[in-house]
Structure formats: structure tokens, C-alpha cells
């Protein structure tokens, strides 16, 4: 079983690309795949559950004490990244719906599957996991301010707290609690150990399933607003390339350990698209442009994460000079 787990982890990039490619093909040959949208959150919750099982939850208390990491994480996501988004915003179309969609997604750091991808990318997923409540609270408080700065006073009225809280409960708190229960069970019985061992095989297949469901559910919805969606792809690609480097650079300024720095890089490059999508749907007149803009970022990001998994582990202290030069 250990050998199978090694094979899955060593071949994960190929597995993910095949999952995305096959799902994209299915969209063109199988009608009605958009109905799978209801399966995104359950699949995400399961993926996070099996990922949390790989993280020693008993050590999370230590993560809360890592002040330099938390400082680097917050400064990256709520100061450096918004400044970078302000630069990227200069290249956005004038359409207010397009700008709203881009801002909603790029100004909110991910609180769910970033833990999975950071774990697969050899970052310190425990630190990110322990920081999810802080990230969620900060973006709930700051997003209205950012939107008012970028869009004017009407932007402040666009954010609702409900979807953020719901996402945190079902995508973080519940899977985390279940993982803690299984870990405790594994520590007390052989049956629990066996269950934990079997579930330990599933992070890669579960992540592949999420990728497939997202593509199957979301790709068909891009049609009516495909022109607007395509117009922002260069901005999303630029963000995907530069944002992790900015996060890594900030982490080096705070002299956090390389694994923790990689976690900051993952967080800086990964956005809260699946959480802010309900926000977009609640905005009057937003459909179909704003959801399409957010969904496009999701697709770009999912492909980017596959690249991060391969290359972010190579970030170490030797990259310090390069990352600092990006900040300058």
C-alpha cells in the first residue's frame, strides 16, 4: 500500500493533467455536465478531509505560535498582493462587471484547497491550516474596503458575510473535525490505523476528482461571456506567475523557514474563487459576466497549481536574491 501511495504521489502531475484534459473533452461530447456544479463543494470537502489526515493535527498548536509566518502571510495577501492587483487593474477592460469579477477573486486568498496543494508541493500545510480562520476573517473585513477603493463606494455594498462563513464551516471546520476523529481512532485501534492507511491513498485521486468536476461543471458556463473571460486571461496568467514569487519574497524578508516560505508562496498564488462565486451570483446584473470571469480564474489557477506543485518545492534559501529582486 505504501508503494501505491508513492506511485500516486510521483505521478500526480500526469494524473492531474489527464483529469483536466479528459474532463474538458467530456464537456464537448456530453451535454449537461454543468449540473455537476452541486458536486464541487462535497468533492472539495472530501479532498480536504483526506488531506488533513496527512497533517499531524496534534502539532497545530505549534503553528499558531509561528508569528513570523503569520506576519508574512498577512502582509503578502493583504498588502503586497492588493498593490500588485492595483497594477494589474490598469490593464483590465473598462466594463465594471469584468473589473468586479477580477477584483473579487484576486483580492481574496484561498482557505480550502490551498492546503491540499501546499501539502503536495512540500510546503508546511500545518501552518496554512492553522491560519485559515485568520485569512477568512481578514478578507471578510478588508474586501469591502478594497472594493470601495477600486470601484467606489458602491463596491462596499457588494460583499455578504454568509458565503464566507458557510464555506469555512463545510470546507474547513467539518473536514478538519472528521480528520481529527480518524487520527484519534487510529491512535487507539488497529482498525483505525488500517482506515487511516487506506484513506492516506486518496489525496491524489481526490484532488484529480475535484479538478475534473470543476472543469465539467464550469467550462460549459463560459459560453455567453467567453469574450469577457478571454480578455482577462493574460491578467490571470501574470498573477499566477508573479504572485507566488511575491509571497516567497515576503517570507524571506521575515526569515521564515523554507517550507513555511513555500506555504506563503502557495497562499499568495491561490485565490478564493469557489467561495466568492456565490458573492458574484448575488450581485444584480452580474450574470453571466462576473461568474464567467471568476470561473476563468479558477481554470487558470488549477493549471497553475500543477506547475506550483512541481516547481515551488525547489524554492529554498538560494532563491532569496531572486525573490527580493522581484519585490524591488
Automatic annotation (TrEMBL):
Coiled coil: none annotated. It is a multi-pass membrane protein. Its main location: membrane. It holds the Pfam family SBF. InterPro entries: Arsenical-R_Acr3, BilAc:Na_symport/Acr3, Na+/solute_symporter_sf. Keywords: Cell membrane, Membrane, Transmembrane, Transmembrane helix, Transport. GO terms for cellular component: plasma membrane. The chain crosses the membrane at residues 12-33, 39-57, 69-92, 98-115, 127-147, 167-186, 198-219, 225-246. The keyword Membrane applies. PANTHER family: ARSENICAL-RESISTANCE PROTEIN 3 (PTHR43057:SF1), ARSENITE EFFLUX TRANSPORTER (PTHR43057). This is Putative bile acid:sodium symporter family protein. The lineage of its organism: Bacteria, Pseudomonadati, Pseudomonadota, Betaproteobacteria, Burkholderiales.
Amino acid at each position: 500500500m505504501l508503494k501505491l501511495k508513492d506511485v500516486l504521489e510521483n505521478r500526480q502531475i500526469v494524473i492531474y493533467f489527464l483529469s483536466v484534459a479528459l474532463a474538458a473533452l467530456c464537456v464537448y461530447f456530453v451535454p449537461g455536465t454543468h449540473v455537476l456544479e452541486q458536486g464541487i463543494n462535497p468533492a472539495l470537502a472530501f479532498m480536504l478531509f483526506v488531506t488533513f489526515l496527512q497533517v499531524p493535527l496534534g502539532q497545530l498548536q505549534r503553528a499558531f505560535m509561528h508569528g513570523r509566518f503569520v506576519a508574512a502571510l498577512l502582509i503578502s495577501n493583504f498588502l503586497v498582493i492588493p498593490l500588485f492587483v492595483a497594477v494589474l487593474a490598469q490593464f483590465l477592460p473598462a466594463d465594471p462587471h469584468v473589473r468586479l469579477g477580477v477584483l473579487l477573486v484576486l483580492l481574496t486568498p484561498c482557505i480550502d484547497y490551498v492546503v491540499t496543494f501546499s501539502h503536495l508541493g512540500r510546503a508546511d500545510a500545518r501552518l496554512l491550516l492553522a491560519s485559515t480562520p485568520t485569512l477568512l476573517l481578514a478578507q471578510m473585513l478588508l474586501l469591502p474596503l478594497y472594493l470601495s477603493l477600486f470601484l467606489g463606494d458602491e463596491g462596499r455594498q457588494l460583499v455578504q458575510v454568509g458565503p464566507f462563513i458557510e464555506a469555512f464551516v463545510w470546507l474547513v471546520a467539518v473536514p478538519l473535525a472528521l480528520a481529527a476523529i480518524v487520527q484519534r481512532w487510529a491512535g487507539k485501534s488497529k482498525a483505525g490505523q488500517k482506515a487511516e492507511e487506506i484513506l492516506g491513498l486518496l489525496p491524489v485521486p481526490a484532488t484529480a476528482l475535484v479538478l475534473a468536476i470543476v472543469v465539467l461543471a464550469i467550462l460549459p458556463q463560459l459560453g455567453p461571456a467567453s469574450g469577457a473571460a478571454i480578455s482577462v486571461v493574460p491578467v490571470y496568467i501574470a498573477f499566477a506567475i508573479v504572485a507566488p514569487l511575491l509571497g516567497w519574497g515576503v517570507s524571506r524578508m521575515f526569515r521564515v523557514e523554507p517550507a513555511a516560505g513555500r506555504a506563503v508562496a502557495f497562499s499568495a498564488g491561490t485565490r478564493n474563487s469557489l467561495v466568492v462565486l456565490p458573492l458574484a451570483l448575488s450581485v444584480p446584473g452580474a450574470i453571466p459576466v462576473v461568474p464567467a470571469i471568476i470561473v476563468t480564474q479558477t481554470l487558470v489557477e488549477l493549471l497553475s497549481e500543477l506547475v506550483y506543485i512541481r516547481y515551488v518545492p525547489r524554492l529554498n534559501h538560494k532563491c532569496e536574491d531572486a525573490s527580493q529582486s522581484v519585490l524591488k
